[in-house]
Amino acid sequence: MLPRDLVLKFLNDRGVGAACGVCGHREWFLGDTESEFAAQVPILLEKGLQFPTPHLPLIYIVCRNCAHVRFFAKGLIDEWAKGQLLTVSEVPNGG
Ligand SMILES: [Zn+2]
User: Which pLDDT does position 37 carry in this prediction?
Assistant: First the structure.
């Protein structure tokens, strides 16, 4: 589970541009980030074909104008989010 507000904070903090690379529109739909059923892409490892096929979990956003899709590696955002949650919980009196 990855809270939507943390995903948006990650994208903003990392300087992900709001303008769509295809049409320039600046409004996006954020795909499901909170269920265990993340979008995934199959990956091929050095061992060759494997079953079950390894997958890379993804976070995706979709341009509300032209439907262009952008993907981000969920694992890296998960790691970053753990640090964010730790920082918040360390603030005395809950901040
Ligand atoms: Zn677009």
Answer: 74
